[in-house]
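User: Okay, second chain of the day. Same drill as before: sequence in, structure tokens out.
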Amino acid sequence: MKTKKLKEQIAKELKEKFEKAPLVVLTDFQGMTVAESNALRRKLREVGAEYKVVKNTLMRYAYPGTPVEQIKDSFVGPTGIVFAYDDIVAAAKALKEFMDEKDSKLKFKAAVVEGKVADYNMVKQLAELPGREELLGQLAFTLKYPVNAVAWSLENLFTKLVTVLENIKAEKEGAA
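Assistant: Same drill. Structure tokens below.
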């Protein structure tokens, strides 16, 4: 049995996570085995997210004053929480992949994305976006392209200039 002090500490840590995480997803994990739960935790950890299972009574002390308070009615029955901090797209993809597996017993309850309530379709749309690394690659290409275009144009210009000078030299040598 947990002491009152320990429960207060857990509620405080949860509140900090609710405030800090831009993506919080509530799930129903009823029927999942320990192995499945560990696989989910591993998959989320790989993308910088985490999965917690905490009693609903403790969560009721943690959500007041946080964006998660908007979905407080979903804290019913077995509830697992996904917290994503850095790359919310990668976390949404990992969660969606796990939920889409053939025998997955994990069910979506509710979510808060960047302080706004989101349904499962919104989380699926988030999962379909390009990941952080892919977006950074696209940005780098976009920033690099104009520089490459100028360099190619200058190179092309110098090649044409050399060709013109060689033709003039050839004409002068032929006239001499």
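Residues 131-176 form one domain.

User: Thanks, on to the next one.
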